[in-house]
# Entry
Amino acid sequence: MPESMPVVAVVGATGHTARFVVEELLRRKMKPIAVARDSEALAKASFSGEVVRRRAKLNDPESLDSALEGANALINCAGPFIDSAHDVAAAALRAGIHYVDVTAEEPSARWTLKNFDTAARQRGVAVVPSVGFYGALGDLLTTAALDDWESAETVELAIGLDSWHPTLGTRKTIARLSDLQETDASGAPSQPRRAKVWDFGKPLGQQPVVEFSFTERLLILRHVRTSDLRTYLSEIALGHVSDPLTPTPKAVDKAGRSAQRFVVEALVTRGLESRRATARGVDAYAITAPLACEVVARLLDGSFSHTGAHAPGEIFDGIDILTALSPDSLTFELSESR
# Structure
């Protein structure tokens, strides 16, 4: 690979989502540095092109700094992010490079946005957490639906899936967050979740959904003015991920994607006007890769508005990014009614 190619470190590179990320970087003619804690798993990892492999312990700043040598940006795929984000983001800032992660963990994303903004501004780089299917996709769809509106009376975001076969990493993260919730429990009764039926159109049709958010509310409310934000997830997805007997994803194509289908929609209203932005595709884990790599590419070419720690929709044009991903990675549509 020519030395002029952008170099992107992928931390947690032996994980399920990270392998999609490494392959997407190779497809985009970028040079990946695969970073992982397990040297044996790193050596056995199969990639389609030339990949630099470096071992590093997340709690060892010296080994992380060495692993990031020569990188222009970093994508953190090492979950649970509540345990990895601080160390990896701090290493990126020491190296003076952009930091992106793919967390769906609200506590981690909130902490990263709060604690790395000033340091990132001082280093002249961007820190952008939750650039994945859960998080950035809904945030960017919301900004795409708003377009030139400065605010909306209502914002509804619905995530529809026809299945969710969680990876072992997802299982581990759920267990870790459950431990945190038990530790931090205040004893206050939980509020019942709103439920409704959402018509996702093809290929999912009408699905029962329940009010639920990973990092979507956190990201959207940082920069969208609305008096009423509702985020929903299909009940079938929650049922599958909650069932310990649900198997892990099974690849059905050469790219390693599963047969899972998704539709994510943002519906914004203002008076009698409404706008809808829709993304359709396959495999929620796999779609994270082109989304994260598109964000990194724009960070490296300067196509973003501010340094510091930000939600994706704060510093990127939602329509622009989602159009760039369509039709190869997803199908993106906009509609409006009066």
The chain has 13 helices and 16 strands. Residues 183-190 have pLDDT under 50 and may be disordered. The radius of gyration is 19 Å.
